[in-house]
Design a protein that fits this description.
- It contains four helices and 36 strands.
- It has a six-stranded mixed β-sheet, with no helix packed on it. Strands 23-20-29-34-31-32 form a six-stranded mixed β-sheet.
- 6% of the residues lie in helices and 41% in strands.
- By secondary structure, it is mainly beta.
- It has three domains: 1-123, Immunoglobulin-like (Sandwich); 130-316, Cupredoxins -  blue copper proteins (Immunoglobulin-like, Sandwich); 329-531, Immunoglobulin-like (Sandwich), CATH 2.60.40.
- The chain has helices at residues 149-159, 304-313, 375-381, 510-514; strands at residues 3-17, 20-27, 36-39, 43-50, 58-61, 87-93, 99-105, 115-121, 135-144, 168-171, 188-191, 196-203, 209-214, 219-224, 227-234, 236-239, 244-250, 257-265, 278-284, 329-339, 342-344, 349-351, 359-363, 366-368, 399-402, 405-408, 417-419, 422-425, 429-437, 446-450, 455-462, 479-480, 482-485, 489-497, 501-507, 518-523.
- The model is unreliable at 409-413 (pLDDT under 50).
- Bound molecules: CU-O-CU linkage.
- Residues 59, 61, 74, 104, 106, 242, 449, 451, 504, 506, 508 line the site of CU-O-CU linkage.
């Protein structure tokens, strides 16, 4: 492969939207940020220089970082932040990876404004497994706040309530005509009748999952999380934050203007948000200009069935896939949202959540606390005191196991512990991970993302996981990096721990991450050089 160089200047930029303007953090003054293009097996080198007062890191979402964990980017997991005035050069190779990815800031809530697409083409001469589209377009779904997002995170975490809803959903940074002052702040694709378009959908939103649909047009999914899928044709798709998808759309309708709409999917009960959709236009060339657009039909915000239908449609293109048939290590991990005890009740203060917060989000009843230096650095250099290796491989409390299956004991709010607990895996371990949604406050669909790997989604269902009832697909399960664990349900994923390093696994809803919904896998080195994590780069930021 060849080498692609990019220069990212982290800047404070004045942006006007929704009848307001604010200073926000961008890359090179752009919102969304610049697109990074590469080909499979290329090396990508991005020099990131921080010209803002905010601590920053950049994560290359979906890139497996084979033997390059130092460049993964999550703050305090693989690196210390790039501080004001400093720079850090990310350098990694797209080893056997191609498709639609994105990059985003991985610290506080800066991701709300610091994101962009990463498009990796197949090697020269290697065709797509579908008819070459006439054109391709990137559509990044996002959320926009009028407030400063770093302050917003602190205010939200302290409040103990649900996250403050975004002021607008956006498509490529544009709210579209459903919002104030946004009639012209709208993204538009001009299409030629009869042609087929490739849309690279990327969900870069913070705290809400989304449906996407185009009025009167069918969408054919051919790629999910940068892996080809069997073509699946549908009226709408659902993406959680952290997921990407390619859909093909043929302009086969009468000349006109059709809306492309992004609207919320929110399975948690009682969460308030603006039930307004962000609209972009799919505009036929030759149609009457300024005609009214036909509205897209989105499912209602709590339509769990619509979500399941999309999920059922995601199958790996090839079958059978190379999924581990034998398992060395089975992990049962619960995902929970709970209210913590507070030392002062009114107003609630000094509570037992992460950073003294009211809410606790946890895996196996442990809320993840970010350490003061990166877990990777502490692990690599053998510095004690920053993390422990005792992440429980099964839930601590709330659960009995009846005949090997979990039996949830509701309403126990005493048992969430805080800690930087990691789980250590020997090189090459074949892991099956059962993710079980639970929680005493509410259940919710959680987009769980694993760094450093893709995993096969071999089974999922509603309610509690009972192995005897689970229907495992070992033929053509999708190979993903972010799985929306069904609300109140479960998902089973498999991967082989063959990439040494320190890998974050967390909910990609940032509010849940702020409340501690994550853990870290430490994957040990194997034998040869090709199984060993290299030394850290010389310019690795210091805390
Ligand atoms: Cu896209 Cu750890 O995240």
């Amino acid at each position: 492969g060849s080498t692609r160089y990019y220069d990212f200047k982290v800047q404070t930029t004045r942006i006007a939207k929704l009848c307001n303007s604010k200073d926000m953090v961008t890359i090179n003054g752009m919102f969304p940020g610049p697109v990074v293009y590469a080909q499979e097996d290329d090396k990508i080198i991005v020099k990131v220089t921080n010209e803002t007062p905010y601590n920053t890191t950049i994560h290359w979402h979906g890139v497996r970082q084979k033997l390059s964990c130092w460049f993964d980017g999550p703050s305090y997991i693989t690196q210390c932040p790039i501080q004001a005035g400093q720079s850090f050069t990310y350098e990694f190779t797209m080893v056997k990876q191609k498709g639609t990815f994105f990059w985003h800031a991985h610290i506080s809530w800066l991701r709300a404004t610091v994101y962009g697409a990463l498009v990796v083409y197949p090697k020269s001469g290697v065709p797509y497994p579908f008819k070459v589209p006439y054109e391709e377009h990137i559509l990044i779904l996002g959320e926009y706040w009028l407030e400063d997002v770093v302050q917003l995170e602190h205010a939200t975490a302290a409040s103990g309530g649900p996250p403050t809803p975004a002021n607008a959903f956006t498509i490529n940074g544009h709210p579209g005509p459903n919002y104030n002052c946004s009639n012209t702040d709208v993204y538009q694709i001009d299409v030629v009748s009869g042609k087929t378009y490739m849309l690279r959908l990327i969900h870069a939103g913070l705290n809400v999952e989304s449906f996407f649909a185009i009025a009167n047009h069918k969408l054919t999914i051919v790629e999910a999380d940068a892996e080809y899928t069997k073509p699946f044709t549908t009226d709408r798709v659902m993406l959680g934050p952290g997921q990407t998808m390619i859909v093909l759309v043929t302009a086969d309708q009468p000349l006109g203007k059709y809306s492309m709409a992004m609207g919320p999917y929110m399975s948690a009960k009682g969460v308030k948000f603006q039930n307004i959709s962000s609209i972009a236009y799919f505009q036929y060339l030759g149609a009457v200009p300024n005609s009214f657009s036909l509205p897209a039909k989105l499912p209602s915000f709590n339509d769990n069935l619509a979500v399941m239908t999309v999920m059922d449609g995601l199958r790996s293109l090839s079958s059978p896939v190379n999924v581990p048939k034998k398992i060395d290590r089975e992990l049962f991990v619960t995902i929970g949202l709970n209210v913590q005890k507070c030392h002062s009740k009114t107003p609630k203060k000094n509570c037992q959540g992460v950073n003294n917060g009211v809410m606790a989000a946890s895996m196996n009843n442990i809320s993840f606390v970010k350490p003061k230096i990166s877990v990777l650095e502490a692990y690599y250099k053998g510095i004690d005191g920053y993390f422990t290796e005792d992440f429980p491989g099964a839930p601590l409390k709330f659960y009995d196991f009846v005949n090997g299956a979990p039996n949830i004991i509701p309403n126990n709010t005493e048992a969430i512990l805080n800690g930087t607990r990691t789980l250590v895996l020997e090189y090459g371990t074949r892991v099956q991970l059962i993710l079980q949604d639970t929680g005493t406050v509410t259940t919710e669909n959680h987009p769980i993302h694993l760094h450093g790997y893709s995993f096969y989604v071999v089974a999922y269902g509603t309610g509690n996981y009972y192995p005897q009832n689970a229907n495992f697909n070992l033929v053509d399960p999708p190979f993903m990096n972010t799985i929306g664990v069904p609300v109140g349900g479960w998902a089973a994923v498999r991967f082989v721990a063959d990439n040494p390093g320190v890998w974050f696994m967390h909910c990609h809803l940032d509010i849940h991450q702020s409340w501690g919904l994550g853990t870290v896998f430490v994957v040990k080195n194997g034998k040869g050089e090709l199984e060993t994590l290299p030394h850290p780069p010389a310019d690795l930021p210091q805390c």
